[in-house]
Amino acid sequence: MMKWIGRSIYVLAIVFISVVVFRLAYTAKLQEYYDAEVRENMDDDETLLTGLMTSLTIDYYQETPKIYEYISDEGDYQFNLSAYAIGISYGDEKYDGLMFVINDIKIVEDDELLENPIIRMSVTLSHQTLLVNDEYQNNGSIIFDPVLQFSIYNVPALFLFDAPNYTLIPNDDENAEPEYALIETLTLEYSNGETNDNGSYVFDEVPFFVASNEEYRDAVHDDHKDSNFAIDPESYRLSDDFGADGLTEDDIVAFNLVTEKDDLSAYNGVMWRIMLVYVLVVVIITYFLFFHKYVRLKLQRKQEKEVTVSKQAIFKDDVEDEK
Predict the structure, then answer these.
(1) Is position 129 within any domain?
(2) What is the domain range of residue 277?
(3) Span 203-211, mean pLDDT?
């Protein structure tokens, strides 16, 4: 009985580990794609957006009109900040959302152009709807380090969805109409790579951009402020205008949606190499855990039988010689 319990636990462990390894292999595939086609071309809007769509499995983004745009192409703090309406699927559910993207970044510090500055993009919402470290807060942020490997947490974009743990305001009344938090402030900060004693990046005390729905009185580098920042939720809730059949080709054309993703088949090699190594390791471990002792016993019995037959043949020869 205990033997079967042990085998069952082993099978369950292999299934769980297989899922984890498959995800790691798929992430490695995305990293190879990102490094080859996106990393060095981030300042090209189409390449960056297609890369984000492909890597993060976004259903679509609206190319035009943009929900928001702020361009700084002069001075010590140059960047391009854009917001797009997007749609995603999570299981059987579909959600509308916003994607804030930053590129064309050129920051000068102490009269020198910073190479690969680390960017922190933060938002403050009207309600505490963002689930951060198991607590609901009204502010959240992403940190983008262009030198680090690709991951879903290290891209030059911040996402907000009309979904639980994002902008949906919790309500115990299941019959109530859903309400969503609004974006009050968006802030951009940079770090030159310096870290504190805890290994965390030290960001400049003065942000290089602040967008808010009211006058912002604190200091901002080069006075990059937008006090008329107001995003109408209806501007990105495109699914309300889709028909009963959901997103159709007519909707894609009518709303200027981009749905095409890059083909990742060229990067399958790295994924299958990882999976092949994993399968070989599992086969070897399984063999030594469950089959090695039986094979060893079988080989041992075979050797003993061969020795016995050999002795019998020797004795037979001796008898014949005596005759």
Answers:
(1) yes
(2) 1-37+263-313
(3) 97
